[in-house]
Amino acid sequence: MTRPLRVGIVGAGPAGIYAADLLTKDETLSSCGTSVSIDILDKLPSPYGLVRYGVAPDHPRIKQIQGALHKILDKPEITFYGNVEYGVDLKLEDLRRHYDAVVFATGSDRDRPLDIPGVDLPGSHGAADFVFWYDSHPDVAPSWHVDGTSVAVIGAGNVAVDVARILAKDADDLLSTDITDNVYEGLRAKQITDVHVFARRGIAQCKATPMELRELDKQPGVEVLVYAEDFDMDEGSLQACEESNQVKTNVKVLQNWAIRDERGAERRLHLHFLHSPVEILGEDRVSGIRTERMELTGDGSVKGTGEFVDTEVQAVYRAIGYLGSPLTDLPFDEDRGSSPTPGAGSWTWTRSTWTACTPPAGSSAARSASSATPRATPWRP
Asked: Are residues 117 and 241 in the same domain?
């Protein structure tokens, strides 16, 4: 009887679990009578990665994806081992000794840096740390003081929208979710009245999905404010609307918000487009943010106008993307925040040959992976 092909997968997020699922269905292996035995290793005690620790608590529908991932982990060919940290408990030479192939699917776990003055001031936070806190990630301290009455969020993607929504939301509105007591108490103590979201480009370049964007306006006691002077549209923006229903929907939602009368809610969520952050202000801690007014160049890109705006805030949350972390004994591109790869996905070692490991385009696993990650966080080593 042929010995099963032994595969080790480092990382138990959606990428690692779907890779395991693909391997159990591989027709090439089955046609030659070869079975597969898969160990999924993760440094955390529980699986599911960002589905567990990166999704806002008021998004239970997305968290339900864990059910589909659990069914995969229940397959007899797959075994999950938690509390096993690659580079500490196991090195590459250990994996090579015990497995015929190794897949690295460790994801993106740190904030993309923002190189502007003041970014290191107390009160300046990366979105990843805040998200991990409200999702009770075991590696993050249980306490978080939400500073001030006015805060800034930098970014225009789903993570930025999530952070802004949680900062503006009444903590009692999260009691029906699975937040822990320490997170509830931390959010209940906040005194925020104004959340300012700053996006470098225009409304047609907003990266948030329409569902996430609309949710900003569905919070009791919160009013979304959009400003008409931020609504420039160039030829590139109009073309983007024609080519993408998502862009067209976002633009329509934002335009409707801009023309309606203010409701005078107790908390306000300000969306500022064409504002590029150039400095976080303050001496001993954050006291404001300086942005440069941008203008569209015709193709959807922007350039600075030389006009600067100062906004008083007591905290800044940076949500401009995630990067991966270096892995022991593996190549790493610090500028890109990932291991060198010809495309998105994970790296596999097979008899000392490195190849990209991704679900084939159009396959059921690729479609499942796409539908399971509406937050569009890159799956990179």
From this structure: yes
